[in-house]
Write a structure and sequence with these properties.
Elements lengths: L4 H9 L4 E3 L1 H8 L6 E6 L11 H12 L3 E6 L3 H4 L14 H15 L8 E5 L1 H4 L4 H8 L4 H4 L3 H8 L6 H4 L1 H12 L3 E5 L3 H13 L6 E5 L25 H9 L3 H12 L9 H15 L4
Parallel strand pairs: 2-3, 2-5, 3-4, 5-6
Antiparallel strand pairs: 1-6
Helix pairs in contact: 1-2, 11-12, 13-15, 14-15
């Protein structure tokens, strides 16, 4: 039985930081066809942590409601390096390094996602076919002023830090991905808003319906303050041993526990449970559904 549209909107918008817009999502759902929901990932490392799985959980919700996921492996964009949140240029990766990481990422992602409803594509398949003339024409679609509105770039320029020209390409190529795969929805963290909006602009220029923007919060780490990060040591890795994973989740605060329930499981804890028991249930479920990654 098809889930009513209003209920789908409620489920899909729950736990998000920003949606542009719920009304557009409702209208797109009313067309009665599965939506194409895009997530682009640059596999810059072989292992992922719980913070990376927040977007995967939202994709899983779309799939459970009958929609299709387009997982774009950025084998081309990863070699540019996403400048989001960076105070310096990312070190370049080789294509072999990116592809090795991509194998691990997709293996991990399919423990949450339904493989049969997931289309996996590599953006190098279209970018490596483009001529220099094609690249010049694509660049002509945006202005330098637009690119310099991006907070990362503005901050670096204000601090007299370099911004390399290839970094200015990143929002443009991520946006062109949305045109190529004809995305109805693009999901990303709150730090991806600029890039996703570029995709909307490019789709409009191509005469396409603009993708709906669905941003999920950046997950706080075990300290409950800073974003989850391996370099900060406040992370839960999906390859952590089960006992270690369970212990890390049990160490979080009660308030952070509520956020983990929402962002990692897509639900609320049982209000009748004592917080300690609710946390034990959270830890046990995360070990089962994430630990297998």
């Amino acid at each position: 039985m098809t889930t009513p549209i209003d209920e789908q909107v409620r489920i899909l918008c729950r736990g998000t930081a920003k949606v542009i817009s719920p009304e557009a999502l409702r209208e797109r759902l009313a067309r009665g066809r599965p939506l194409r929901v895009k997530l682009g990932v640059d596999p810059t490392a072989p292992d992922i942590h719980f913070g990376h799985t927040v977007v995967l959980e939202k994709l899983r919700q779309f799939q459970e409601l009958g929609h299709d996921v387009v997982l774009i492996i950025g084998d081309f964009t990863a070699m540019i390096g996403d400048p989001t949140g960076r105070s310096a240029t990312r070190p370049p990766l080789t294509h072999a390094e990116v592809m090795a990481n991509a194998t691990t990422y997709t293996d991990q992602a399919f423990h949450l996602l339904d493989r049969s409803r997931t289309e996996v594509v590599y953006n190098g398949d279209w970018f490596r076919k483009m001529t220099y003339e094609d690249i010049v024409k694509l660049n002509a679609r945006v202005t330098l002023q637009q690119m310099l509105q991006r907070e990362d770039f503005k901050a670096r320029l204000d601090q007299a830090q370099e911004v390399r020209l290839h970094e200015l390409q990143y929002p443009l190529v991520q946006g062109w991905d949305s045109v190529v795969v004809r995305a109805d929805v693009e999901i990303g963290g709150t730090d991806q808003l600029f890039n996703i909006l570029v995709g909307r602009d490019l789709q409009k220029e191509e005469g396409m319906d603009q993708q709906i923007v669905l941003l999920v919060p950046i997950l706080e780490g075990l300290d409950g303050v800073k974003k989850m990060s391996k370099s900060l040591g406040n992370y839960v890795g999906v390859t952590d041993p089960p006992d270690e994973m369970f212990g890390k989740v049990m160490s979080i605060s009660d308030s952070l526990m509520l956020r983990y329930y929402t962002l990692l499981l897509g639900e609320d804890p049982d209000v009748e449970l004592h917080p300690m028991e609710a946390k034990k249930q959270l830890a046990a479920r995360l070990v089962r559904c994430r630990g297998a990654l």
